[in-house]
Amino acid sequence: MTTAVRLGLRENWLQFTLLVIVNVCVGGLVGLERTTVPLIGTETFGLTSDLAVFSFIIAFGMTKACTNLAAGALIARFTRRQLLIAGWLIGIPVPFALAWAPSWGWIIAANVLLGLNQGLTWSMTVNMKIDLVGPARRGLATGLNEAAGYVAVGAVALLTGYLAATHGLRPLPELIGVVFVAAGLGLSLVVRDTAAHVALELSHHPAPADGAQSAGLAATFARTTWQNRSLRGASQAGLVNNLNDGLTWGVFPLLFTQHGLGLAAVGLIKGLYPLLWGLGQIPSGHLSDRIGRKPLIVTGMLVQAAGFVLALALLADPLLAGIISAIALGLGTAMVYPTLIASISDHAHPTWRANALGTYRFWRDTGYAAGALLAGILADTLGLNTTVIAAAILTTASGLLAARWITNPRPATENSHPPTPTGTDQQPNTEPPNPTPS
User: Fold this and answer.
1) Is the bond preceding residue 253 a cis peptide, omega within 30 degrees?
2) Res 285: pLDDT
3) 223 three-state secondary structure
4) Architecture of domain 13-194+215-405
């Protein structure tokens, strides 16, 4: 007897829980690199250019960004579950390459595979959770998804810092990634696809007035990138948010080791940031369902900017500076991360939501590469401190743009369906149309 398909977190708790565990494995695999890889570049392979050291982040970020974009289009040809499994198969060589790479080029190649893995697996877990819960709990669903992933990132960063301090930078810290690949692949074979849940939501969802339900990737890319002011505001905030992450990924291990901290202390700083980022997303995602997306997004970006300022202001005590900045960056990112995904979902019709999320995640994860590239150029020419100041200025500007562009649709209730998103600057029909963008 076939079980009736229903939308909701409680109604789909088993599948939702399996997907949460899968995303723990997704985050754990990328967490391998947070503490050790920049130091492998300088200490194992003797790299002297900061831009060369950060090149692995550029490779990872651009590959993941392009895979995010492609994932939305691939959903039209393959199921979410098939793409999830494919992502794990691609990720199998990553921990082995990081552990025994004979040259820096192998590390970069491993990060291309890691970007493909993360783009497919993380995209599918977030899409499948949104499919399962329906419109009323999108913020909570994305909060739980991102929390699972980033708590794993932080925990593994802490663990690899400890293992590197006691057993060396390689190979032991990287080989724990084998556990994540095996578990993630095994669970993905058990998870059921969510196509029926998308069909159910579509059956109750009014069609967009402008016929945007038939739009392809190119039209959705334009709509998400610029034409719709709320989608535009979320996309630029996502890019700058991950620019910060890419910048701190490369800069903070070098900055704090230059000021006398050891591997264990750097691992603490690098682990605390994503741990708070992860744990904080559950209440922030839930809160965004109650009060709207915009307040959390704007506040979160400004808190992140404050984190960079504090990193330099307290640098006379580098451990204190690292911990305080990690707390501010983690909490600020926790406010922003699930809320941006939910905001994109609010303004995208289910028929083009996957492409909208793919476009948003393309711009968001391009931020990794942009942050690493900016950090490398500025650090090589002006120093690490100037790089951190530049990040604070950019993040403040992004928060102000989010305040100008993003609008909140009326929050959905348990028994209601969301307002119809449109493909232009006109917002859902619960609010008056936005003015022409400036």
Assistant:
1) no
2) 84
3) helix
4) Up-down Bundle (1.20)
Query: Helices 177-188 and 13-31 meet at what angle, rounded to 10?
Result: 150
State mean pLDDT over 116-128. 92
What is the model's pTM? 0.80
Q: How far is CA 414 from the centre of its chain?
A: 27
Which structure tokens are listed for 400?
A: 């102000």
In contact, 196 and 4? CB cutoff 8 Å: no
Q: What is the pLDDT of residue 75?
A: 83
Angle formed at CA 78 by CA 72 and CA 84, multiple of 5 degrees: 75
Q: Average pLDDT in the 295-306 region?
A: 97
**Largest distance between two CA atoms of the chain:** 67
CA 194 to chain CA centroid, Å, is 22
Structural domain boundaries of the chain?
A: 13-194+215-405
Nearest C-alpha neighbor of 95 from the set 174, 182, 180: 174
Residue 47 is which amino acid?
Answer: L
Is residue 9 pLDDT above 60, yes or no? yes
CA 306 to chain centre: 20
Decide: helix, strand or coil at residue 31.
helix
Among 188-202, 217-231, 392-406, the range scoring the smallest mean pLDDT is 188-202
